[in-house]
Every structure is written in C-alpha cells, then in structure tokens.
Amino acid sequence: MTAVGQPRATARSYLYVPGDQPDKVARAAARGADACILDLEDAVAPAKKATARTTVGAFLADAAASAPATPQWWVRLNADTPSADIVAVVGPHLTGVVVPKADVDLLAEVHRLLGDAERDHGLPVGGIAVFALLETAGGVLRAEAVAAAPRVERIGLGEADLAAELRLQPGPDKVELWPFRSRAVLACAAVGLAPPVGPTETALRDPDRLEATSRLLLRQGFRGRTAIHPAQVPVVNRVFSPTAAEVDAAQDIVDRLAGAEQSGSGVAVAADGRMIDAAVARSAREVLDRATADR
User: Fold this and answer.
1) pTM across the whole model
2) Rounded CA gap, 227 and 277, in Å?
3) Using an 8 Å Cβ cutoff, are 111 and 98 in contact?
4) Planar angle of CA 240, 209, 35, nearest 5 degrees
5) Short-list 164, 165, 132, 168, CA closest to 147
6) For 201-226, what is the mean pLDDT?
7) Rounded to whole angstroms, how far apart are CA atoms 153 and 278?
8) CA–CA distance, 231 with 246 (Å, rounded to integer)
9) Which phi and psi (to 5°) does residue 158 adopt?
10) CA distance 190 to 188
11) Mean pLDDT lowest for which of 38-52, 130-144, 156-170, 239-253?
C-alpha cells in the first residue's frame, strides 16, 4: 500500500475480475493490467456475494502478498452493502475500493467505514484509496463534490447505468454521453485529481473498435480505461502510453521553450513552425510525465 500522502502511480488499465471465481482472481496478476478490480458487484450474482467476499478477502490476505508489486489491487463494493464488503477485504495489500453509484453521502460512509477497518487492522488511517464511479444523475450533477471527497484518487464513468437512468439510447459512437464525459474531466481538473478513467468497451471481439474508442477517450481527456476481458488490456495500455515519437516531440517542445526563455523570450517556434508558449509546453510535459510514470 502507498503511504498516506504519497502519490500513487496513475494506472492506465483497470481489469475487472469476478470476485466469486478463485481461478480468475489467482491469474489476475499475470494479465498485464496496471490495476485489477476484484469485483463484488455487477459480475457477481446476488446468491454468490458472500462467496465473493470470502474469496477476495482470502486472496488479499494471502496470495496478494506474494504477487508482484504490480498490479494495484482494488475491490468494487456494492453500494447497498459497503460495510460487509469493507470488513471482508481490508488489509495491507488493498490499494483501494471502487465505489459504484458514487455520491457524497455514500462516499462519506465509505470513508468512515474504511477508517474503522484501518484502525482494526493497525493500518495507517487514510491509506486506502477510493475510485468513485459516476453512474447516476445525482453523482454527475455533484461531480466536483464527488471528486473532492475524502480518499478519492480516481473518477470513472459507468455509462451503461447512467444511460439507463437518463433513458438515453446511445448510438455506436455514444455521442449522447459525451457531455457527461466532459463533466468528469472538468471535475478532476478542478480539484487536482488525475484525469478520469474511461468506461469499458463491451464489444469483446472487436479490437479495432476498442482501439478507436480508447483513442477517442484519450482525446477527450481520459488517461486510462477499465477492461472486462484480459485481451483488452494490451490495447488499453498501448493507447494510453505515449509513443516514442510523441515523447521525442514533447521533449523537443520543452527544450525549445527552455532555450527561448534563457534568451529572454517567452515563446519559441516548433520544428513544424508552430508557436510554442507556456501552455503548449504544459501539454508536452504531461506527455513526458506519462512516459516516465512508475508502473
């Protein structure tokens, strides 16, 4: 677990793993995702919730201790049973919890429950993070407050739940949901969080679509994505990692502006003739930061 207050590496890929399937949980670390979300919610039938808690709790208490330093280990809670879920899974190897249908009241309850569990386990209070999923109209309307809630490190969108509540009928490009994507991006930027995590692609046998929709999310301000199948992970990781050419171009921009500033100018000219100022260099530094992120 990252120490309280210490920045955590920003994951590109979050792989959902059904919490009631021990074989899949055991293999999760080898799937190449930056983070795994051991799921107690949608992937688990109501009759198997208790089994999932036991399976995930045992894994985090035992097997995760011998797993590699990566991936991060997250657990998606049930919005209606956060207490039972948290008691079952909190331990030193838990990175954080994913809170579905996140709103300020539920996040306040989760914060309190996590604090109680951390004290019970002798863990630093505040060390377990929260990944808040915006899946309701209320959550989206209060996105800034959700992003500013205690422990929240990442924001994500649950577009299927949100579309159902709003009675939307999204087309293939899901343009109907783009305003809510922008709301999540704005909320994260406003409170200083890492950019949000994009929603899953449900077309499992269409890698071209996965790549295209992931690149769209990247352009829209997202810097990661959830996955529901291991085969999606390499594509997600590739899209949300700067290419060598992008890194070289970003470094050139930073270097050119630095040289101009040493000469007393606040602007420079890029190799392609574009003007470079502080705002352009800021975007370039973001590319460099992603390229050097500690995975």
Assistant:
1) 0.92
2) 37
3) no
4) 40
5) 132
6) 95
7) 27
8) 25
9) -100, 85
10) 5
11) 239-253
Question: Beta partners for 11?
Answer: none
- Name the region of 27 (left: φ>0; alpha: ψ -120 to 50; beta: rest): alpha
Letter for the amino acid at 96? G
Residue the block writes with tokens 């996590």: 114
Distance CA(95)–CA(36), nearest Å, equals 10
Which H/E stretch holds residue 207?
A: helix 207-219
Q: Are 79 and 106 in contact (CB under 8 A)?
A: yes
Neighbours of 287 (CB within 10 A): 18
Here the tokens at position 113 are 């429950």
- By CB atoms closer than 10 A (0-12, 13-18, 19+), residue 106 is buried
Per DSSP, the chain holds a count of helices (H) and strands (E) of: 12, 9
Q: Which alpha helices (DSSP H) does 62-205 contain, by range?
A: 82-89, 104-120, 137-141, 143-147, 159-166, 178-191
pLDDT tens, residue by residue, 185-205: 999 999 999 999 999 999 988
Nearest Cα to 228, choosing from 262, 193, 256, 204?
204
Angle separating helix axes 82-89 and 104-120, nearest 10 degrees: 30
Place of tokens 């996965």: 210
Q: Tell me which residue of 119, 74, 123 sits closest to 99, measured CA to CA.
A: 74
Compute CA distances 47 → 8, 20, 43, 136, whole Å: 35, 10, 12, 25
Whose structure tokens read 């959700």? 146
With CA atoms as reference, report the closest residue to 97 among 62, 129, 71.
Answer: 129
According to DSSP, the β-strands at 268-269 and 35-39 are unpaired
